[in-house]
Amino acid sequence: MSQHILSTFNLQGESITVTMGYDRPLDFVFCTVMTTNDDVIYSNLDDDDAGTDQQDVDYYRPILDRLGIHVPESIFWEVKADQLMRVGNRVVVHTADE
């Protein structure tokens, strides 16, 4: 599984962590958004249209926009590359100013 992790803030100024990536064994892309207290704001597993079937990381763009979260374009590119190359065991920490 690849993980691309971004610590940032939402529009309300709350500190959050966005984790996006590719799950190689189950062959799907994922996205979770959590508070620093580990409260789940969004999880693909709770989304009937994503779950463990989502193959397009761009699906998460409007969801993140609705949550007021800016994710650098580089994360989307890297998740797409991970999926294309079937990458596993990769963790990358990103910064909001990429």
Structure description:
This protein has 98 residues and is an alpha+beta fold. The chain has one domain. 20% of the residues lie in helices and 35% in strands. The protein is built from 2 helices and 5 strands; from the N terminus they run E-E-E-E-H-H-E. The protein is globular and about 35 Å long.
Short description:
With 98 residues, the chain is an alpha+beta fold. The protein is built from two helices and five strands. The mean pLDDT is 94.
What is the count of β-strands? Answer: 5
Shape: globular
**Strands ordered across the widest β-sheet:** 4-3-2-1-5
Oligomer: single chain
Strand content is 25-35%
Q: How would a textbook summarize the main sheet?
A: 5 strands, mixed
Order of helices and strands: EEEEHHE
- Termini separation: 22 Å
What is the average per-residue confidence, as pLDDT, rounded to a whole number?
Answer: 94
Secondary-structure class? alpha+beta
